[in-house]
Specification:
- Helices cover 53% and strands 15% of the residues.
- With 383 residues, the protein is an alpha+beta fold.
- A four-stranded mixed β-sheet has the order 1-4-5-8. Strands 2-3-7-6 form a four-stranded antiparallel β-sheet, with no helix packed on it. Strands 9-10 form a two-stranded antiparallel sheet.
- The protein is globular.
- Bound molecules: glutaryl-coenzyme A.
Protein backbone atom coordinates (compact mmCIF):
# COMPACT_ATOMS: atom_id res chain seq x y z
CA UNK A 1 0.00 0.00 0.00
CA UNK A 2 1.41 3.35 -1.06
CA UNK A 3 -0.02 6.56 0.41
CA UNK A 4 2.22 8.84 -1.67
CA UNK A 5 0.81 10.63 -4.68
CA UNK A 6 3.00 10.38 -7.77
CA UNK A 7 4.94 13.50 -8.86
CA UNK A 8 2.57 13.75 -11.80
CA UNK A 9 -0.52 13.79 -9.57
CA UNK A 10 1.06 16.33 -7.21
CA UNK A 11 1.75 18.56 -10.20
CA UNK A 12 -1.85 18.20 -11.41
CA UNK A 13 -3.18 19.04 -7.94
CA UNK A 14 -0.90 22.08 -7.73
CA UNK A 15 -2.10 23.42 -11.08
CA UNK A 16 -5.71 23.06 -9.89
CA UNK A 17 -4.92 24.66 -6.53
CA UNK A 18 -3.21 27.63 -8.15
CA UNK A 19 -6.06 28.07 -10.62
CA UNK A 20 -8.66 27.83 -7.86
CA UNK A 21 -6.87 30.30 -5.61
CA UNK A 22 -6.10 32.83 -8.35
CA UNK A 23 -9.08 32.60 -10.66
CA UNK A 24 -12.00 31.22 -8.65
CA UNK A 25 -11.61 32.19 -4.99
CA UNK A 26 -11.34 35.99 -5.38
CA UNK A 27 -14.81 36.27 -6.94
CA UNK A 28 -16.49 33.26 -5.28
CA UNK A 29 -18.51 35.32 -2.77
CA UNK A 30 -19.64 37.78 -5.45
CA UNK A 31 -20.44 35.03 -7.96
CA UNK A 32 -22.49 33.25 -5.32
CA UNK A 33 -24.34 36.40 -4.27
CA UNK A 34 -25.06 37.43 -7.86
CA UNK A 35 -25.76 33.84 -9.00
CA UNK A 36 -23.23 34.22 -11.81
CA UNK A 37 -22.69 31.21 -14.01
CA UNK A 38 -19.00 31.58 -14.91
CA UNK A 39 -18.89 30.21 -18.45
CA UNK A 40 -15.50 31.91 -18.84
CA UNK A 41 -14.04 29.85 -15.99
CA UNK A 42 -15.67 26.69 -17.35
CA UNK A 43 -13.75 27.33 -20.57
CA UNK A 44 -10.50 28.03 -18.77
CA UNK A 45 -10.82 24.76 -16.84
CA UNK A 46 -11.37 23.07 -20.19
CA UNK A 47 -8.18 24.65 -21.55
CA UNK A 48 -6.31 23.30 -18.52
CA UNK A 49 -7.55 19.79 -19.31
CA UNK A 50 -9.62 19.40 -16.13
CA UNK A 51 -12.45 17.57 -17.92
CA UNK A 52 -10.22 15.18 -19.84
CA UNK A 53 -8.53 13.20 -17.08
CA UNK A 54 -10.58 10.03 -17.66
CA UNK A 55 -10.78 10.47 -21.44
CA UNK A 56 -8.28 8.96 -23.92
CA UNK A 57 -6.08 11.30 -26.01
CA UNK A 58 -7.91 10.19 -29.13
CA UNK A 59 -10.97 12.22 -28.10
CA UNK A 60 -9.10 15.20 -26.67
CA UNK A 61 -8.52 13.89 -23.16
CA UNK A 62 -5.28 13.41 -21.25
CA UNK A 63 -5.89 10.04 -19.60
CA UNK A 64 -4.50 11.15 -16.21
CA UNK A 65 -7.18 9.14 -14.47
CA UNK A 66 -9.89 9.24 -11.83
CA UNK A 67 -7.57 10.12 -8.96
CA UNK A 68 -6.43 13.17 -10.94
CA UNK A 69 -10.07 14.17 -11.36
CA UNK A 70 -10.63 13.79 -7.61
CA UNK A 71 -7.61 15.94 -6.76
CA UNK A 72 -8.61 18.67 -9.23
CA UNK A 73 -12.23 18.63 -8.09
CA UNK A 74 -11.37 18.95 -4.41
CA UNK A 75 -9.20 21.99 -5.10
CA UNK A 76 -11.90 23.69 -7.16
CA UNK A 77 -14.65 22.94 -4.61
CA UNK A 78 -12.49 24.25 -1.78
CA UNK A 79 -12.55 27.62 -3.54
CA UNK A 80 -16.16 27.45 -4.74
CA UNK A 81 -18.34 24.36 -4.64
CA UNK A 82 -20.57 25.53 -7.51
CA UNK A 83 -17.56 25.47 -9.85
CA UNK A 84 -17.03 21.81 -8.98
CA UNK A 85 -20.53 21.09 -10.21
CA UNK A 86 -19.56 22.60 -13.55
CA UNK A 87 -16.79 19.99 -13.88
CA UNK A 88 -19.26 17.16 -13.39
CA UNK A 89 -21.57 18.50 -16.09
CA UNK A 90 -18.75 18.26 -18.66
CA UNK A 91 -17.21 14.96 -17.60
CA UNK A 92 -20.48 13.11 -16.92
CA UNK A 93 -21.70 13.11 -20.52
CA UNK A 94 -18.17 12.84 -22.00
CA UNK A 95 -17.28 9.78 -19.97
CA UNK A 96 -20.59 8.07 -20.68
CA UNK A 97 -20.14 8.64 -24.41
CA UNK A 98 -16.62 7.16 -24.24
CA UNK A 99 -18.04 4.09 -22.54
CA UNK A 100 -21.23 3.53 -24.53
CA UNK A 101 -21.00 5.71 -27.65
CA UNK A 102 -20.10 4.78 -31.20
CA UNK A 103 -16.85 6.02 -32.68
CA UNK A 104 -18.78 8.70 -34.55
CA UNK A 105 -20.57 9.87 -31.39
CA UNK A 106 -17.31 10.04 -29.50
CA UNK A 107 -15.56 12.13 -32.12
CA UNK A 108 -18.51 14.47 -32.51
CA UNK A 109 -19.70 15.05 -28.96
CA UNK A 110 -16.70 14.66 -26.67
CA UNK A 111 -14.20 17.35 -27.81
CA UNK A 112 -16.57 20.35 -27.37
CA UNK A 113 -17.47 19.09 -23.86
CA UNK A 114 -13.81 18.72 -22.90
CA UNK A 115 -12.90 22.18 -24.15
CA UNK A 116 -15.89 23.77 -22.41
CA UNK A 117 -16.99 25.16 -25.76
CA UNK A 118 -20.32 23.41 -25.21
CA UNK A 119 -21.87 23.39 -21.75
CA UNK A 120 -23.20 19.95 -20.89
CA UNK A 121 -25.62 18.38 -18.44
CA UNK A 122 -27.39 15.11 -17.70
CA UNK A 123 -31.12 14.78 -17.31
CA UNK A 124 -32.31 11.90 -15.12
CA UNK A 125 -34.52 13.29 -12.33
CA UNK A 126 -38.23 13.92 -12.75
CA UNK A 127 -40.88 15.32 -10.43
CA UNK A 128 -41.92 11.80 -9.39
CA UNK A 129 -38.61 10.05 -9.99
CA UNK A 130 -35.71 11.21 -7.78
CA UNK A 131 -34.15 8.33 -5.84
CA UNK A 132 -36.31 5.92 -7.85
CA UNK A 133 -34.77 6.42 -11.28
CA UNK A 134 -36.83 3.64 -12.86
CA UNK A 135 -39.98 5.58 -11.89
CA UNK A 136 -39.36 8.17 -14.61
CA UNK A 137 -42.15 8.89 -17.12
CA UNK A 138 -40.33 10.53 -19.98
CA UNK A 139 -40.93 8.82 -23.30
CA UNK A 140 -38.79 8.63 -26.43
CA UNK A 141 -40.93 7.44 -29.33
CA UNK A 142 -39.28 6.24 -32.52
CA UNK A 143 -40.32 8.28 -35.56
CA UNK A 144 -38.33 7.15 -38.64
CA UNK A 145 -34.68 8.07 -38.22
CA UNK A 146 -35.32 10.08 -35.07
CA UNK A 147 -36.99 9.86 -31.67
CA UNK A 148 -39.52 12.32 -30.31
CA UNK A 149 -39.01 13.10 -26.63
CA UNK A 150 -41.96 13.95 -24.42
CA UNK A 151 -41.85 14.64 -20.69
CA UNK A 152 -40.24 16.85 -18.08
CA UNK A 153 -37.00 16.69 -16.17
CA UNK A 154 -36.58 18.65 -12.97
CA UNK A 155 -33.65 19.87 -10.82
CA UNK A 156 -31.34 19.51 -13.80
CA UNK A 157 -28.03 21.23 -13.19
CA UNK A 158 -27.12 23.53 -16.09
CA UNK A 159 -30.64 23.29 -17.55
CA UNK A 160 -30.72 27.06 -18.10
CA UNK A 161 -27.23 27.33 -19.64
CA UNK A 162 -26.37 24.04 -21.35
CA UNK A 163 -26.20 23.48 -25.09
CA UNK A 164 -27.01 19.81 -24.83
CA UNK A 165 -26.89 16.81 -22.57
CA UNK A 166 -27.57 13.19 -21.77
CA UNK A 167 -31.25 12.38 -21.52
CA UNK A 168 -32.77 9.18 -20.16
CA UNK A 169 -36.26 8.18 -21.31
CA UNK A 170 -38.42 5.11 -21.83
CA UNK A 171 -38.58 3.67 -25.32
CA UNK A 172 -40.75 0.86 -23.95
CA UNK A 173 -42.45 1.42 -20.62
CA UNK A 174 -43.88 -2.09 -20.51
CA UNK A 175 -40.34 -3.46 -20.00
CA UNK A 176 -39.88 -1.45 -16.75
CA UNK A 177 -36.22 -0.46 -16.25
CA UNK A 178 -35.25 -2.71 -19.19
CA UNK A 179 -37.22 -0.41 -21.50
CA UNK A 180 -35.19 2.73 -20.76
CA UNK A 181 -32.81 4.24 -23.31
CA UNK A 182 -30.09 6.89 -23.24
CA UNK A 183 -29.54 9.74 -25.71
CA UNK A 184 -27.13 12.57 -26.17
CA UNK A 185 -29.05 15.54 -27.54
CA UNK A 186 -28.13 19.04 -28.67
CA UNK A 187 -30.76 21.48 -27.52
CA UNK A 188 -30.80 23.41 -30.83
CA UNK A 189 -34.21 22.09 -31.91
CA UNK A 190 -37.74 23.36 -31.29
CA UNK A 191 -39.73 21.58 -28.58
CA UNK A 192 -37.67 22.34 -25.46
CA UNK A 193 -38.70 24.81 -22.76
CA UNK A 194 -36.42 25.61 -19.84
CA UNK A 195 -37.44 27.02 -16.49
CA UNK A 196 -34.93 28.06 -13.83
CA UNK A 197 -35.35 26.85 -10.23
CA UNK A 198 -34.13 28.79 -7.19
CA UNK A 199 -32.05 26.84 -4.66
CA UNK A 200 -30.45 27.24 -1.24
CA UNK A 201 -26.83 26.75 -2.27
CA UNK A 202 -24.44 26.29 -5.18
CA UNK A 203 -25.98 29.49 -6.50
CA UNK A 204 -23.49 29.91 -9.35
CA UNK A 205 -24.55 26.54 -10.66
CA UNK A 206 -27.91 27.13 -12.36
CA UNK A 207 -30.59 24.49 -12.00
CA UNK A 208 -33.89 24.13 -13.78
CA UNK A 209 -36.60 22.23 -15.49
CA UNK A 210 -36.39 20.85 -19.04
CA UNK A 211 -39.76 20.37 -20.69
CA UNK A 212 -39.70 18.31 -23.89
CA UNK A 213 -42.66 18.44 -26.29
CA UNK A 214 -42.12 16.35 -29.40
CA UNK A 215 -38.47 17.25 -29.14
CA UNK A 216 -36.59 15.50 -31.98
CA UNK A 217 -33.35 13.58 -31.38
CA UNK A 218 -31.63 11.72 -34.25
CA UNK A 219 -31.68 7.94 -33.78
CA UNK A 220 -27.92 8.13 -34.34
CA UNK A 221 -27.66 9.92 -30.98
CA UNK A 222 -28.88 6.93 -28.97
CA UNK A 223 -26.18 5.46 -26.72
CA UNK A 224 -26.12 1.68 -26.80
CA UNK A 225 -29.24 -0.24 -27.72
CA UNK A 226 -32.83 0.48 -26.87
CA UNK A 227 -33.32 -0.79 -23.33
CA UNK A 228 -29.72 -0.17 -22.22
CA UNK A 229 -30.61 3.16 -20.59
CA UNK A 230 -30.98 2.07 -16.96
CA UNK A 231 -27.65 0.29 -16.88
CA UNK A 232 -26.00 3.22 -18.65
CA UNK A 233 -27.53 5.53 -16.07
CA UNK A 234 -26.31 3.43 -13.13
CA UNK A 235 -22.85 3.29 -14.69
CA UNK A 236 -22.84 7.04 -15.23
CA UNK A 237 -23.96 7.76 -11.67
CA UNK A 238 -21.14 5.68 -10.32
CA UNK A 239 -18.64 7.93 -12.13
CA UNK A 240 -20.31 11.25 -11.40
CA UNK A 241 -20.79 10.32 -7.73
CA UNK A 242 -17.04 10.28 -7.38
CA UNK A 243 -16.89 13.88 -8.53
CA UNK A 244 -19.50 14.83 -5.91
CA UNK A 245 -17.52 12.99 -3.25
CA UNK A 246 -14.40 14.95 -4.17
CA UNK A 247 -16.39 18.19 -4.12
CA UNK A 248 -17.60 17.43 -0.60
CA UNK A 249 -13.98 16.95 0.49
CA UNK A 250 -13.22 20.44 -0.81
CA UNK A 251 -16.07 21.96 1.18
CA UNK A 252 -15.07 20.04 4.33
CA UNK A 253 -11.52 21.29 3.97
CA UNK A 254 -12.56 24.90 3.35
CA UNK A 255 -14.82 24.88 6.41
CA UNK A 256 -12.06 23.38 8.56
CA UNK A 257 -9.53 25.94 7.34
CA UNK A 258 -11.93 28.79 8.12
CA UNK A 259 -12.54 27.38 11.63
CA UNK A 260 -8.86 26.84 12.40
CA UNK A 261 -7.92 30.29 11.22
CA UNK A 262 -10.72 31.93 13.22
CA UNK A 263 -9.80 29.95 16.35
CA UNK A 264 -6.32 31.41 16.15
CA UNK A 265 -7.51 35.00 15.75
CA UNK A 266 -10.58 35.43 17.88
CA UNK A 267 -10.01 36.25 21.52
CA UNK A 268 -12.73 35.80 24.14
CA UNK A 269 -12.38 35.65 27.92
CA UNK A 270 -8.77 36.69 27.50
CA UNK A 271 -7.60 33.83 25.28
CA UNK A 272 -7.72 32.61 21.72
CA UNK A 273 -10.89 30.61 21.29
CA UNK A 274 -8.81 27.71 19.90
CA UNK A 275 -7.64 27.17 23.45
CA UNK A 276 -11.13 26.19 24.55
CA UNK A 277 -11.51 22.43 24.60
CA UNK A 278 -14.99 22.53 23.12
CA UNK A 279 -13.57 24.13 19.98
CA UNK A 280 -10.66 21.70 19.95
CA UNK A 281 -13.18 18.87 20.09
CA UNK A 282 -14.92 20.25 16.98
CA UNK A 283 -11.65 20.77 15.11
CA UNK A 284 -10.40 17.29 15.92
CA UNK A 285 -13.65 15.75 14.74
CA UNK A 286 -13.68 17.84 11.57
CA UNK A 287 -10.18 16.66 10.73
CA UNK A 288 -10.84 12.99 11.51
CA UNK A 289 -14.04 12.92 9.42
CA UNK A 290 -12.44 14.78 6.52
CA UNK A 291 -9.29 12.67 6.42
CA UNK A 292 -11.22 9.41 6.71
CA UNK A 293 -13.50 10.48 3.88
CA UNK A 294 -10.53 11.51 1.75
CA UNK A 295 -8.89 8.11 2.06
CA UNK A 296 -12.19 6.42 1.14
CA UNK A 297 -12.63 8.65 -1.90
CA UNK A 298 -9.03 8.12 -3.00
CA UNK A 299 -9.54 4.36 -2.68
CA UNK A 300 -12.61 4.47 -4.90
CA UNK A 301 -10.74 6.57 -7.48
CA UNK A 302 -7.71 4.30 -7.30
CA UNK A 303 -9.94 1.25 -7.92
CA UNK A 304 -11.48 3.05 -10.91
CA UNK A 305 -7.99 3.73 -12.26
CA UNK A 306 -7.16 0.03 -11.86
CA UNK A 307 -10.36 -0.72 -13.79
CA UNK A 308 -11.60 -2.67 -10.77
CA UNK A 309 -15.22 -2.69 -9.59
CA UNK A 310 -15.82 0.28 -7.29
CA UNK A 311 -19.57 0.99 -6.98
CA UNK A 312 -19.57 0.01 -3.32
CA UNK A 313 -16.40 1.94 -2.52
CA UNK A 314 -17.71 5.00 -4.41
CA UNK A 315 -20.95 4.93 -2.44
CA UNK A 316 -19.03 4.64 0.83
CA UNK A 317 -16.74 7.50 -0.17
CA UNK A 318 -19.60 9.72 -1.34
CA UNK A 319 -21.58 9.09 1.82
CA UNK A 320 -18.61 9.73 4.11
CA UNK A 321 -17.53 12.86 2.25
CA UNK A 322 -21.03 14.36 2.18
CA UNK A 323 -21.41 13.81 5.91
CA UNK A 324 -17.89 15.16 6.59
CA UNK A 325 -18.70 18.33 4.62
CA UNK A 326 -21.89 18.87 6.59
CA UNK A 327 -20.23 18.15 9.91
CA UNK A 328 -17.44 20.58 9.07
CA UNK A 329 -19.74 23.35 7.83
CA UNK A 330 -21.93 23.00 10.92
CA UNK A 331 -18.92 22.97 13.26
CA UNK A 332 -17.37 25.98 11.52
CA UNK A 333 -20.66 27.81 11.94
CA UNK A 334 -20.64 27.07 15.67
CA UNK A 335 -17.05 28.25 15.99
CA UNK A 336 -17.55 31.47 14.05
CA UNK A 337 -20.88 32.21 15.70
CA UNK A 338 -22.54 35.35 14.39
CA UNK A 339 -19.62 35.94 12.00
CA UNK A 340 -20.23 32.53 10.50
CA UNK A 341 -23.89 33.34 10.09
CA UNK A 342 -23.11 36.66 8.42
CA UNK A 343 -22.37 36.92 4.71
CA UNK A 344 -19.12 38.68 5.56
CA UNK A 345 -17.42 35.28 5.98
CA UNK A 346 -17.59 32.33 3.56
CA UNK A 347 -18.80 29.86 6.21
CA UNK A 348 -22.49 30.48 5.52
CA UNK A 349 -21.79 29.61 1.85
CA UNK A 350 -20.02 26.39 2.87
CA UNK A 351 -23.02 25.59 5.07
CA UNK A 352 -25.48 26.07 2.20
CA UNK A 353 -23.27 24.34 -0.37
CA UNK A 354 -22.50 21.37 1.92
CA UNK A 355 -26.18 20.50 2.10
CA UNK A 356 -26.32 19.67 -1.61
CA UNK A 357 -23.87 16.79 -1.15
CA UNK A 358 -26.36 14.89 1.00
CA UNK A 359 -28.93 15.22 -1.79
CA UNK A 360 -27.31 15.04 -5.24
CA UNK A 361 -26.18 11.96 -7.14
CA UNK A 362 -28.00 9.63 -4.83
CA UNK A 363 -28.84 11.05 -1.40
CA UNK A 364 -26.96 9.95 1.68
CA UNK A 365 -29.86 7.58 2.35
CA UNK A 366 -29.48 5.99 -1.10
CA UNK A 367 -25.74 5.52 -0.50
CA UNK A 368 -26.49 3.91 2.88
CA UNK A 369 -29.06 1.67 1.22
CA UNK A 370 -26.51 0.54 -1.39
CA UNK A 371 -23.89 -0.09 1.31
CA UNK A 372 -26.19 -1.91 3.74
CA UNK A 373 -27.95 -4.04 1.14
CA UNK A 374 -24.56 -5.16 -0.17
CA UNK A 375 -23.47 -6.15 3.36
CA UNK A 376 -26.75 -7.95 4.01
CA UNK A 377 -26.43 -9.86 0.76
CA UNK A 378 -29.69 -8.45 -0.67
CA UNK A 379 -28.17 -6.64 -3.65
CA UNK A 380 -24.54 -6.67 -4.68
CA UNK A 381 -23.17 -3.17 -5.23
CA UNK A 382 -20.26 -4.22 -7.44
CA UNK A 383 -21.74 -5.91 -10.49
O1 LIG B 1 -31.33 -7.67 -12.98
P1 LIG B 1 -31.41 -6.66 -14.05
O2 LIG B 1 -30.77 -7.07 -15.34
O3 LIG B 1 -32.80 -6.15 -14.22
O4 LIG B 1 -30.52 -5.42 -13.57
C1 LIG B 1 -30.78 -4.76 -12.33
C2 LIG B 1 -29.47 -4.38 -11.73
O5 LIG B 1 -28.51 -5.40 -11.85
C3 LIG B 1 -31.39 -3.42 -12.67
O6 LIG B 1 -30.30 -2.52 -12.85
C4 LIG B 1 -29.08 -3.16 -12.55
N1 LIG B 1 -28.22 -2.26 -11.77
C5 LIG B 1 -26.97 -1.99 -12.06
N2 LIG B 1 -26.19 -2.36 -13.06
C6 LIG B 1 -24.92 -1.89 -13.07
C7 LIG B 1 -28.59 -1.62 -10.64
N3 LIG B 1 -27.55 -0.91 -10.18
C8 LIG B 1 -26.54 -1.11 -11.04
C9 LIG B 1 -25.20 -0.67 -11.11
N4 LIG B 1 -24.70 0.16 -10.20
N5 LIG B 1 -24.45 -1.08 -12.14
C10 LIG B 1 -32.33 -2.90 -11.62
O7 LIG B 1 -31.64 -2.88 -10.40
P2 LIG B 1 -32.30 -2.49 -9.05
O8 LIG B 1 -31.26 -2.60 -8.01
O9 LIG B 1 -33.59 -3.26 -8.87
O10 LIG B 1 -32.67 -0.94 -9.30
P3 LIG B 1 -33.58 0.04 -8.46
O11 LIG B 1 -33.91 -0.50 -7.13
O12 LIG B 1 -34.67 0.53 -9.34
O13 LIG B 1 -32.60 1.32 -8.26
C11 LIG B 1 -31.34 1.24 -7.69
C12 LIG B 1 -30.91 2.59 -7.10
C13 LIG B 1 -31.79 3.05 -5.96
C14 LIG B 1 -29.48 2.35 -6.59
C15 LIG B 1 -30.91 3.65 -8.23
O14 LIG B 1 -32.20 3.97 -8.66
C16 LIG B 1 -30.20 4.92 -7.81
O15 LIG B 1 -28.98 5.00 -7.92
N6 LIG B 1 -30.94 5.95 -7.34
C17 LIG B 1 -30.35 7.25 -7.01
C18 LIG B 1 -30.61 8.23 -8.11
C19 LIG B 1 -29.53 9.24 -8.29
O16 LIG B 1 -28.38 9.06 -7.91
N7 LIG B 1 -29.89 10.32 -8.94
C20 LIG B 1 -28.94 11.33 -9.28
C21 LIG B 1 -29.55 12.35 -10.14
S1 LIG B 1 -28.42 13.35 -11.02
C22 LIG B 1 -27.81 14.47 -9.92
O17 LIG B 1 -28.02 14.40 -8.75
C23 LIG B 1 -26.98 15.58 -10.49
C24 LIG B 1 -26.06 16.22 -9.49
C25 LIG B 1 -25.01 16.96 -10.14
C26 LIG B 1 -23.81 17.31 -9.28
O18 LIG B 1 -23.98 17.91 -8.20
O19 LIG B 1 -22.68 17.02 -9.68
Amino acid sequence: MDFELSDELIAVRDVAREFAEKEIAPSAAKDDREKNFRGDLVKKMGELGFYGTMIPDLYGGNGLGFLAMVLITEEIARAHSAMRVAINMQIGPALTIVQFGTEEQRRKFIPPLLSGEKIGCFAITEADAGSDVAGMRMIAKRDGDRYLLNGSKIFITNAPVSQGGLVYAYTDRSQKHRGMSAFYADWDQPGLTRKPIETLGALSSPIGELIFENFPVPALNRLGNEGDGFKICMWQLNQTRLNCAAGALGVARAAKEAAVSYCNQRVQFGQKIGEFQMNQDLIAQMIAHEEAARLLVYRAAWLADQKKPNNLETSIGKYAAAEAANFAADAAMKILGAYGYSTEFPVERYYRDAKSYQIVEGSSNIQKMIIAQDALGYRKANR
